[in-house]
# Entry
Amino acid sequence: MQAFGHASHGDRPREAPPEGDDSAAPLRPRPVVTDLTRPFWEAAREGRLAAQRCDECGVFRHPPLPQCVHCRSARTSWVDLEPRGRVYQRTVMHERRVHGFENAVPYLCVAVQLDCAPELLFVGNIASSEPSEIRIGDPVVAVFDPLPGGLGLPQFAPIEGGEC
Ligand SMILES: [Zn+2]
# Structure
């Protein structure tokens, strides 16, 4: 199964860190942009978190799908979302098996439930923090990392003070 927007093991470019490079910054596989996912990546490049919303019933969906899972309508619009939410689930990765992340361990993967669309979960990383300091329920905001090719990648950062 292929993760949303990322190359599968067979078609990703193999980019190894330079010899002696002990940088903890992951060398991420580049997203695979399709007609279906392009609005998401273009919004991220511009610092916006976007998702599909069904024109018939108003249900949000992410990752993008060709039709609504609720009413099966193919009529959809892309809308910008308020990029704040709370950590719904967290996993600290210690294994070095994920290509591009070998030197980044341990790192934190989170699923974030948005305040404005709690039916959606966005998966990403929280960088520059001690993984043990981030707990389920902590408030976070989306931040956007630049990627090669003019793309942007939504990630998350904790919000100081606990207010969303
Ligand atoms: Zn619908």
